[in-house]
Amino acid sequence: MNVNNPIKNSRRMSPWMIVYPLFIYFGICQILNMILPVLVQIDEVKRLGINNIVAFLVLYIVFIRPLKKENGLFTAEPFLDASEQKSLFFTHITGHSVRGICVAIALMSAAGIAFNNVLAMIEVKELSESYQMVEQAFYAADLMWELLVLGIVTPLVEDVLYRYLIFFHLKKSQGTIGAVCLTAVIFGVMHFNIVQAIYASALGMLLGALMAYYDDIRVPVVGHMAANLIVLLRSETGLLEFLSSEKNYYIPVTVVLLVLILAVSLVLFKKLAKNCADK
């Protein structure tokens, strides 16, 4: 019985529940950023990987499986409601989720290509010195570590933070569509530079819609991984070189991808609006 749990199911606490997980995540990352260089010499990508793994474990313990002392013993009590818990990784995967994962891979791979093409065409990357520093640091690492950390670990942790913890608490006070939009904006702003803010907000809108419609965190996680991996492989290995900006069909392909992304997004949001109206 959760008698003294003022956070759960409380609309008044919704703003705090957005700040709280963000504070824990970025606080842990900042502490590790100060400690790790003193202990060991590692590059930015490996340090990001350690930060994310430690932050994920803390977020899991604090929010997903918090410990409650009962009769002298510590027992796991889910922080989120049962309806929200079923969206976790360790549950039976349904056909609906499998279809969602397939849609997510295709949609987010296309988004990773198209959104980066647009950013390159409008030359916004040159406007952000902080983004250039981040890009230089991350792309200087070994490809294997880039794929592991930036392509696998980071999407997993970010989606648990934004598309799971923050999304569900915003959903209680702002509704499904509001939660999708606000989560995307928060996701973008927390990247702290204009280039990644634009890119992450657009990506976050799609990931949030996937989470909201398929109600399974595995769907946006896999989609996010697909987007990051396709961007990394394209940048580091020459994959999809036929889509380089020097080719005549660079702009037409980008336009076609954007139209397809828009069409799928409209279908998702239309279904979400219908689901909300039916409830």
Question: What would your notes on this structure say?
Answer:
The chain is mostly helical and 279 residues long. The protein has a domain at 86-278. 73% of the residues lie in helices and 3% in strands. The chain has 9 helices and 2 strands, in the order H-H-E-E-H-H-H-H-H-H-H. It has a two-stranded antiparallel sheet with strand order 1-2. A hairpin with a 2-residue loop joins strand 1 and strand 2. Helix 4 (95-121) runs antiparallel to helix 7. The longest helix has 47 residues, at 143-189. 33% of the residues are buried.
| Average pLDDT, all residues | 85
- Alpha carbon gyration radius: 20 Å
**First-last Cα distance:** 27 Å
**Uncertain spans:** 1-12, 67-78
Secondary structure tally: strands: 2
Based on Cα principal axes, name the global outline: globular
Oligomer: single chain
Strand order of the largest sheet: 1-2
Helical content band:
over 70%
Query: What structural category characterises the helix and strand content?
Result: mainly alpha
Report the sheet with the most strands, covering strand number, pairing sense and barrel closure.
Answer: 2 strands, antiparallel
Order of helices and strands: HHEEHHHHHHH
Count up the helices. 9
Beta-strand residue percentage: under 5%
